[in-house]
Amino acid sequence: MPKPPPPPLTIGVDIGGTHVRLLLVADDGQVVNRAHLPAIAGDPTEVVRPVSVQVNRWRGAYPHIFRLGVACAGWVDADGRRVHQSPNLGWHDVRLADLLETLCRLPVRVENDVNAALLGEHAAGAALGQRNCVAVFLGTGVGGGVITDGHLMRGAKGAAAEVGHHVLDPNGPLCTCGRHGCWEAYSGGAGMVNRAREAIAAGEKSSLASLPAVTTAEIMAAATAGDALAKRIWGEACRRSIQGMVNLAVLFDPEVMVVGGGVVAANPTLLACIKDGMDQEPPFAGLTDVHLVPAALGDDAAALGVALTTGV
Amino acid sequence: MPKPPPPPLTIGVDIGGTHVRLLLVADDGQVVNRAHLPAIAGDPTEVVRPVSVQVNRWRGAYPHIFRLGVACAGWVDADGRRVHQSPNLGWHDVRLADLLETLCRLPVRVENDVNAALLGEHAAGAALGQRNCVAVFLGTGVGGGVITDGHLMRGAKGAAAEVGHHVLDPNGPLCTCGRHGCWEAYSGGAGMVNRAREAIAAGEKSSLASLPAVTTAEIMAAATAGDALAKRIWGEACRRSIQGMVNLAVLFDPEVMVVGGGVVAANPTLLACIKDGMDQEPPFAGLTDVHLVPAALGDDAAALGVALTTGV
Cβ of B168 and A166 within 8 Å? Predict the structure, then answer.
């Protein structure tokens, strides 16, 4: 009897401003190999070349690699070919799929990194088997993705589910997007740091004032230690996350809401705080029986997501 | 040569708290016949019987009727069989599809009336041919629906797109849902009337105080005539509608946003006000090139929507 052919493999690449991660993945989600490359911001061809070298090295060792998925920070067109804009990478209108197809001779699909992370959690993580789910990642910013009736919601221009930029209070703090009171301005790490700096500059007393530079981790630590300013900023970040999550539940009626990201990883009590807050809301259709779960795949989520769904 | 068979027809029924409307519709969207029945709130079998009489009368006259779609105010399960809850009709857990299938011997699908109206606008109205669209209906309440990548978003429990109950400011006025600052509390007709009553009861001077009962139409008329209270309430309703629409554009990234409902029909300047407000927002992906259009089908939208999409 002939030997059965080796299982088909796909490669998932996650290109961010601070990391380039490659996973070689079997169809059942098993990670067969992994590689990390130093991040290079700047010219897309310079960023892409070391990726193609690693891909082609793996193709020599594993002959059954048949596609490549790429997760990329920024606004990716809905057809999965072009990075319209990526502030993190300093890219504008980059035909990333064409570039990599030329260098690797494999079919390529590009996906926004947050959407990719949700696809990963949906294919092999915290949202496995759910038909309607919302993912929210609380980090420097507040990102999100939505799967509705089993399909990733990309929108007309690939820009859907910008959950961090829905406005929770038009009189709120200024956001990087130019509007006031976006969820991200309250609950993103960068927003929290800005508000601490502003308060200190305005003369407010705080243990944070003596630090050379305020970080999100220090705000969380100071809040735990009882610092009034840090408690206020952290408390508001939590309360606004409850409002944001309730809004998404009401708008999307998901079975599961996945919460992840650096701020949650650094302070797991945030998830309990959001859950308590949602439980105390008046009953409402979309809020009934929503399961709030922590993200399960950590930093692998996006690369795994594009590897497992690129052919879909 | 034999005569070609007559074209297949479907019936769309719109059951609301104040109206029951039936349309007999050809596959191309042409309305072949129509009927209006008096609204009966109360026992579902009493409401459904005259509908079935009209359906069976049409079946006698038109032999090629092959399905029935029903639009119903309230929370309809995602599988289109059961009305989970309809405050307008006083219904709870009504197996409406079963009831009508027994009486009419036709396959039946039930849809929430606002989703049905969006399906109508998408199949034959203002959102014709668009793959991603959001509809918002500003009336007594604020209702909405979403089509993403060509599919109606129903959510896990059929409760998705409750756009009027996403919170625009947690310190805002009390909403009927028990929370504060929902879009509906600001911009729904009932919310506007409540706020006028409260201000008058608190002693605020207004031309509205002399009226036996305040209505939305009177608030709009008084605002136009320069009444300070009416102008404040109407102005806030407009500003909050801009915030709500911007949030939906950022979350859903649609090609088209359809705006309809009684409040818009009674005051077409509202649409221009929302459009101006959205145009003045800082540029943002989901907001770019969004077309804001008035609903085109009026009161026929929901019945037409279920008639044209029931087999889909």
Answer: no
